[in-house]
Amino acid sequence: MRTASRRMLPVLATAMSVAGIAATSAQAAVVHVTGKSTTVTPSAQAAKFLSAHSITVSALGTATLAGGSLTLPISHGHVTTPLHNGVLHHHGGVKFSNGKRSLVLRSFELVRATDKTVLTAKFEGVRLIIARVVKLKEVVVGNQVTVTGTLKLSVAAARGINHLFGHHLVAAGANIGTLSSTITLA
Known about the structure:
Layout: H1 2-7, H2 9-23, E1 29-42, H3 44-52, E2 56-60, E3 64-66, E4 69-81, E5 86-90, E6 93-97, E7 102-113, E8 116-123, E9 126-141, E10 144-153, H4 155-165, E11 175-185
Antiparallel strand pairs: 1-4, 1-11, 2-6, 3-4, 4-5, 5-7, 6-7, 7-8, 8-9, 9-10, 10-11
């Protein structure tokens, strides 16, 4: 996987630049995030793919798995106002395994900068964009924000999955599920 990791370095630069933009938005007020969680629910297509390839999913650390949905606690983060750009850092992770090979993702981050929102995670110590978040919606009530959207598999993640399992199984842009984050602001 080291060769694939080197090919994914441009993705790392993109994720970090998006995070940098979110962290330094010009003249925006920064509000700290104090907690809650993000839940990823696989699409029917993703669930069918996992089942067809005998891939099991396991929650790691403080993450939980219930009814096929993965919930990751938010450890901390920040959001700028009024645009709601920011970065949410999560505890826990997830492991995908087919008995012969496995893929572990940890240190998830939800990053939003202007018109781009991505879900990133670390794989073998390298931060990758796992999915683009599209159809983003947010509801703000007091100091609680709920963000929802659809997850589209990134090029890097598709490439990594195909490399790991030895042949073309997935394509970038596939609908892999939905994301729902409940965020408490300080």
